[in-house]
Specification:
This protein is α+β, with helices and mostly antiparallel strands. 40% of the residues lie in helices and 16% in strands. A 4-stranded mixed sheet has the order 5-1-7-6, with helices on one face. The longest helix is centred in the N-terminal third of the chain and has 17 residues, at 83-99. It binds iron/sulfur cluster.
């Protein structure tokens, strides 16, 4: 299939099948940037809920730049991968300082911003400003791997180079590059899916090298994943009136820094994700187990024993503890696991 024919088929499919997502109704680079940051690692259904609320709370770059970090984390709470939220705020501050509050239009300036890589730069520049900038995300990588039967494992320098070269080559000259990039991603999300791609109804099937060679299920070759680690935790429910005791994670924690969680102790094996701060201090007397909750953080598969506990008599709580008042969950940056345990124990 010539590139021109491929573009024509895919763009026609996109016009007829695209989902009507709210961030597709705007050309505002800020709104598009926020949606792209949220959509990395998070499902569309979840982002549909978070995106409008986030924009309502921080309606523009200046508003986000001026916000307190803890408020941004609170608005992000539940989406996970909190570095994304911190980077958004830092980048907003850099845009105010260096670009007068306007999202920059030059690729190099965009790539200089904290937390913005080639994918996000390509997405914002092509969708908001109609610039001929390519992008590769997981969906596009899969579609290209199959269409062009790329044998290299995803994530290797060689396959990255090949994918980006293809993305550049295929960018249309006479149609919107933003529509083209979105068409590729949408096609990967709806038709050329990771498992059970819908080859029978695929508009590119007659030109798909993997399909012609009967190799669809082999491609793309995944990159080696780190092994899953099973972790067991104990989480304490300590009540005072209608409030719950929570503690703040250290600012220098490798993950979820500064977020609030319920008092937590690793039973085994040690991961470094959680610290046993409450036990040596003898602050609590753990009581009966009220249930178990499953949770995942990156490659950690966590089994949580939820226990009631009481504060030791005359205990002096260190400064990183606080009481979470009833219905105040939305105002604090709680970890996803804390939200899950609170919903379970409520
Ligand atoms: S034929 Fe199947 S594998 Fe090839 S592009 Fe279409 S959906 Fe993907």
């Amino acid at each position: 299939m010539s590139h021109a024919a491929l573009r024509k088929s895919l763009l026609a499919w996109y016009r007829a099948n695209r989902r009507d997502l709210p961030w597709r109704r705007t050309r505002d680079p800020y709104g598009i940037w926020i949606s792209e940051a949220m959509l990395q690692q998070t499902r569309v259904e979840t982002v549909l809920d978070y995106w409008p609320k986030f924009l309502q709370r921080f309606p523009n770059i200046a508003g986000l730049a001026a916000a307190r970090e803890e408020d941004v984390l609170a608005a992000w709470s539940g989406l996970g991968y909190y570095r994304r939220a911190r980077s958004l705020r830092e980048a907003a501050r850099a845009i105010v300082e260096k670009h007068g509050g306007e999202f920059p239009r030059e690729r190099e300036s965009v790539l200089d911003l904290p937390g913005i890589g080639p994918y996000t730069a390509g997405a914002v520049l092509s969708i908001a400003f109609d610039q001929r900038e390519p992008l590769i995300d997981g969906n596009v990588a899969r579609v290209f791997s199959r269409l062009f039967a790329i044998d290299d494992c995803l994530g290797t320098p060689k396959s990255e180079r090949r994918l980006w070269d293809l993305a550049r080559e295929l960018l249309p000259r006479s149609q919107s590059p933003g529509d083209w990039n979105q068409a590729l991603m949408e096609f990967g999300a709806l038709v050329c899916t990771p498992r059970a791609p819908r080859c029978e109804e695929c508009v590119l099937a007659t030109h798909c090298a993997a399909r012609i060679a009967g190799r669809v299920t082999e491609l793309p070759r995944p990159k080696a994943r780190p092994a899953v680690l099973d972790v067991e935790l104990e989480v304490l429910i300590v009540r005072r009136g209608g409030s719950w005791l929570i503690e703040q994670r250290p600012e220098d924690a490798a993950r979820m820094a500064g977020l609030w969680e319920l008092p937590t102790r690793e039973i085994g094996p040690a991961t470094g994700l959680f610290r046993a701060r409450w036990q040596p201090a003898g602050l609590f007397t753990p009581g009966r187990e009220v249930g178990r909750v499953r949770h995942s953080i990156t490659r950690h598969r966590i089994d949580v024993s939820v226990r009631e506990a009481t504060l030791a008599k005359r205990a002096r709580l260190p400064a990183h503890f606080a009481w979470l008042r009833p219905r105040a969950e939305s105002q604090l940056a709680l970890t996803g696991m804390a939200r899950k345990v609170l919903a379970f124990a409520n």
